[in-house]
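Same chain as my last thread, 462 residues:
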Amino acid sequence: MGRKEGLLRKPIAVEGGLVTGIPGERPGVAVFKGIPYASPPVGDRRWRAPEPVLPWKGERACDAFGKSCPQWIPPVGSFYQKEFQYPADRSGLSEDCLYLNVWSPAASDADRLPVLVWIHGGGFLGGNGGEIEFDGEAMGRRGSVVVTINYRVNILGFLAHPDLSAETDRGTSGNYGLLDQIAALRWVRDNIAAFGGDPSCVTIAGQSAGAMSVQCLLASPLAKGLFHRAILQSGGAVHGLVDFQPHAFAERNGPRVAAEYGATSVANLRTLSALELVDGMPRSDPGARDPQAIRFAPVVDGYVLPSDPSDAILAGSVRDVPLMIGLTADDFKASFHPAPDGKASPPPPDAMHVRLERGIAEWGEALIRQKRTPAFLYRFDRRLPGDEAGAFHTSEVWYMFGTLGRSWRPMTDADRELSDRMVAYWTNFARTGDPNGPGLPRWESYKGPSRTFHALDIRKED
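reply #2:
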């Protein structure tokens, strides 16, 4: 058989059993959708650390994405619902959601290709690894193995409560979504070689809450040795969008959250369905500056996160790995995120955008001051065609995944050229820790007298 069949020639053995994949839309890339990386976090496993995957018998056909963690659904016709074609119903939601997806161009498990693990955004309230804009084929055709993951979000992923803390030896609670991400990275370490990936060459990447998750993983001792480079898109910064909540405040808010459901304990909350929990959630803003606000987001618990990741960056205690950090030109200058009642949220002040850009630069300066590996900083400037939204929050994801053909927007040849360039930058970085390569405009790291962000736009970038 030729290279085209690659990993589809026979079942692949992973933790739990055998899996089979399907051909990608383009020749040369095999796709494995919906591989479980942990046990379903249901029943008594709700609000507990992920447990090892349950074994299965025979061959598991991995031909469909696993279901997403229960979450609010954007109203039909709202900006992001239209942009990323989120489904209008809840049939794709389930508390049994801990699945990942693999795209691989490898001819066999003897290949050792760089691996990029994508962590989705969604404000820690929603999202999933099978969204239409996420597809690993373009990167796969350039020689990378791509993994996208689901993890628990909102109240199911980040509820802290005294009852939950009492269930553990360490006396903490609230970071189940981050623990899921770490479990997925351990799965990659232990299983990705079977897909032709190199477990010693893993890049973690994410956008928005995914970027904030990457920042947390850089600071977490539990993620040590699980990745070797990191990409943070529109969310990673020093005291930028989020300062994460101290455990004491988050835990104190647990009974307040339970009271919203008329519950007096976690045992009461575990009797409710996941959708009842999601529908009854109090509003959560992961970026709220009030330290005592109710938030469903990572918690500085002394276990997963010993300190706030921004403080760890300034102290030089995060992992010293090659970094790529950036934002879009119109990040957070307008808000299209719907409120739970379907009404549009008011636009946040431009100060959010300024704070994010300043925090990214401050991270770059900290690396120089600490004589650490310099970062590659960028700003995505392309104003997308089709409306006046500009270079809005999340707009660059179409380009770096090479999925412009799935967008409703009237993309041009210039857009496709920019996308090809960005796919090359991202895959080069995953391979070497440096986005530069033959035929690409030079991208200087953030050091020396210029201290500039590399502009990503359809204009010539030399």
